[in-house]
């Protein structure tokens, strides 16, 4: 969807310019667009009839550069993908959630330290995004939607920082980890506090 959308927006456009624009948006970090796969994706979209090559030019010893445009079939596919993502509710999987499900397997001090560390990393990330938003790079040269996405990520990051702190405080306070029936089972005693609570 990202590649089809950018070709539609910038056409006629070289693959190099599509790659540069995606990287300038940071799409390699938030849209799982890998820089090395962009040229392959352009060729594949061309083979599927979603894009068409309109010119190939070579200047001196440089590699030939192909210029692309989107086809009517490509426009339909882009709009279908776009609306599917706008109207759907897609949850991203975070490996941390799977690890957190086994909270009782960690000693309380380690769980507290890990959560506080996660909060610090997230806080630094939020500050970096905030600085990027305030720079002219985002404000003046990118579509307004990119800066609004940064607002969303900042808000999510701030919420998770606060959550990490709250949960770390609860663990430090000795809030029980498990229901009474599970607390006595073997294999779940690592998370005991100094007072023996789970």
Automatic annotation (TrEMBL):
Q: Which InterPro entries does this entry report, sorted A to Z?
A: Metal_resp_DNA-bind_regulator, Tscrpt_reg_PadR_N, WH-like_DNA-bd_sf, WH_DNA-bd_sf
Q: Where are the transmembrane segments?
A: none
On the tree of life, the source organism's domain of life is: Bacteria
Q: Identify the residues that the record assigns to the Transcription regulator PadR N-terminal domain, covering every copy.
A: 3-79
What is the protein named? PadR family transcriptional regulator
